[in-house]
Amino acid sequence: MSSAIKTTFFPTWLVDPVRETAQHARGPFRPVSNRMIWLIPLAVGIAGLALAGVAWSVDAKQFYFSYLVAWASCLSITVGALFFVLIQHLTKARWSVVVRRIAEALTWGFPLLAILSIPILIGMHDLYHWTHADVMDPADSHYDPILAAKEPYLNTPFFLVRVAAYFVIWIGLSLLLYRASIRQDLDADPTIPARQRKVSAIGLLLMAITTAFASYDFLMSLDPHWFSTIFGIYFFAASFWTAHALIALVAILIQRNKALSDVISEEHYHDLGKMMFGFTVFWAYIAFSQYMLIWYGNLPEETLWYRHRLEHGWEAHSAALLMLHFIVPFWILLARGAKRSKAIMAIMAVWFLIMNWFDMHWLAMPVLHPDQASIHWASLASFVGVLGVYLALFMYRLNRHALVPQNDPNLARSISFST
Amino acid sequence: MLKDLAEHVKASMSIFGRDDTDLYGLLAEFKNPGELVHAAEGVHTAGYRRFDTHSPFPIHGMDKAMGLGNSKVGVFALGGGLTGLATGYLLQWWTGAIDYPLNISGKPAFAVEPSIPVMFELTILFAALGAVVGMFAMNGLPRPYNPLFYSRRFAQASDDAFFLHVASNDKYFDVEQTGDLLRSLGAVHVEPIFDREEADEDL
User: Fold this and answer.
1) Rounded to whole angstroms, how far apart are CA atoms B96 and A230?
2) How high is the pLDDT of residue A238?
3) How far apart are CA B82 and CA A130, in angstroms?
4) What are the residues facing B27 on neighbouring strands?
5) Do A336 and B74 count as a contact with CB atoms less than 8 A apart?
6) Residues near B76 by Cβ (< 8 Å), separated by ≥ 6?
7) How many CA atoms lie within 13 A of B195 on its CB side?
């Protein structure tokens, strides 16, 4: 048996940077053989993207906004999954070893997201007002002194450099951690955990910076007059929260396919549920912190952003966000039994994935339609399309290797973990 | 009826009554934590509900072995939290809009937005206090007098001994049979405890 993992080449590399190692997976950790778990999302995703393509030919500007919302919601899951992996390594977490491979496989969504960012870069002129040359030109009638003052940061070449830097960092960190983890499956080298921890220490710092700035660049700069320094944390809260939801959902799906039956227990769902519950409150805390300071300061350049989201029908979206992204899930997940029930956890995970998209929609879409709130069919098509393809490739990748890091020194303790 | 209820609530706090002969129950000593868990399981399976275990340190899995079920401290925390939320709201409204309204840069005398931090903090404070008070209440603490203190061996419960006490007011309690059960579960020593509510002259 060869104990070295083999690198794949482009374009397979985009799906999985290492060759299949499923044949080395030990009995209880063997992947799911049911191809439907990735074929169905792939079919749905391609259909969604085709429909989104129609939307592009009908109304390109609407398409770009819809697509950005869908893309950002998948980006947030991936960013959250990378945070999850980094934090588990740094804290030498034991409980999470059985679900860590799911998060590791999610982090390799970055190469796909880099490819999928191309339509956003093509649509920059429609998405980002600061890309317009006339607002920067003092001689032009559209001259905007505020945006002109922000030109050293908000200009197209620097934006492209930043986007490239984010993806280099994200893909680099994911590659280091993902490869090391797969290598550990074949070769129980005892130095691997320490090395993963070192990468994670630097990685967490890099992630904090890149996540905040990526959220400023892709979402906050849609309304370039407005600024909020807490916006990055808001995006992080959404990311980390949704990553937990998707990890729980995928674990349930795997177990429904008769894999990892005695590996993941209700104790693990309970902990994932606690994190999901905790982050409903954390998200609301951050969202409110942003709102309250702006309410108190009452400065026109800051309050306008909320004004757009509190009139012309957007107030209903804001109210829905408060109710369905905080108050209702708070009460549902408060009970201990709810977090230990696979059925309730699956429902809440799907709920949070949808509400995370709705949150991104609420951040972005009032910029395009300040006068009339709506959910355009292009937005739904883009969401289904991008998420479908994203999940399909993730499920395919996940089932090319053992479903848990099978040689992790803490795996046995994770399996027998109980609170 | 009311007396039964009071007795039941007290029993849930491990405060048990005595019978006509002042018997408080049987105290059995076990060799190690593993045997104590096993004994608790055995006693619970035999139908006993009024019993308690005493050990120098918390034993993982004991609540399950004793059939205690889910802790009710969360209910106290929730009650405290909701009380705190309401208190925060009323405090902000009464002080801001009723008792001493001040015009601060044209803002409303009372609004929910700036009140939420106060409501939030009081929710946390009252929930934490509710949890602590609830925990003490459910444990029947503080409890300076406990008939088990009449047992000389029981002093070891905070050092190196593991005890199981079956209350005499459990409906299955019988000095002979319960004693046999405890011995069959591996008790190294079983003694009856009498509650005479008098000072122990030897101490």
Assistant:
1) 29
2) 96
3) 47
4) B165, B191
5) yes
6) B130, B131, B133, B134, B135, B137, B138
7) 19
Distance CA A110, CA A176 (A): 13
The position carrying tokens 């009908």 is A58
Diameter of chain B measured on Cα atoms: 80
Rg (C-alpha) for chain A, rounded Å, is: 22
Task: In whole angstroms, give the CA distance from residue B150 to residue A134.
Answer: 91
Inter-chain residue contact A296 with B114, CB threshold 8 Å: yes
Question: Cα separation of A179 and A5, whole Å?
Answer: 8
pLDDT at A3: 57
Choosing among 1.20.58, 2.40.10, 3.10.450, 3.30.70, the CATH entry for B21-69+146-194 is 3.30.70
What is the rounded distance in angstroms from the CA atom of residue B122 to the CA atom of residue B119?
5
Mean pLDDT of A352-364: 96
B44 in Cβ contact with B182 (< 8 Å): no
Could you tell me which residues come within 8 angstroms of residue B159 by beta carbon, excluding any fewer than 6 positions away?
B56
Please state the φ and ψ torsions of residue B34, each to the nearest 5 degrees.
-60, -45
**pTM for this entry:** 0.88
- A291 vs B70: CB contact, 8 Å cut-off? no
Nearest to A68 by CA among A392, A359, A379, A385: A379
Q: Write down the domain spans for chain B.
A: 21-69+146-194, 73-139
pLDDT in tens, A1-38: 445 788 888 888 888 899 888 888 888 888 888 889 99
Question: Which strand (E) or helix (H) includes residue A183?
Answer: helix A156-186
For residue B156, the 8-state DSSP code is: G
The dihedral through the CA atoms of A400, A406, A410, A411 has a sign that is positive
3-state secondary structure of B189: strand
Query: Looking at chain A from residue 320 to 359, which residues have their Cβ under 8 Å from any Cβ of chain B?
Result: 334, 336
Average pLDDT, integer, range B86-114: 92
Query: Residue with structure tokens 């203190």?
Result: B149
DSSP SS3 for A197: helix
- What the block records as the tokens of B116 is 């939420």
Give yes or no for B59 touching A (CB within 8 A).
no
B54 strand-pairing partners: B163
Subunit contact A292:B74, Cβ cutoff 8 A: no
Q: Are A5 and A182 in contact (CB under 8 A)?
A: yes
Gap between the Cα atoms of A397 and A102, Å rounded: 10
CA quadruple A78, A83, A85, A88: dihedral sign: negative
CA dihedral of B172, B178, B184, B188, whole degrees rounded to 10: 140
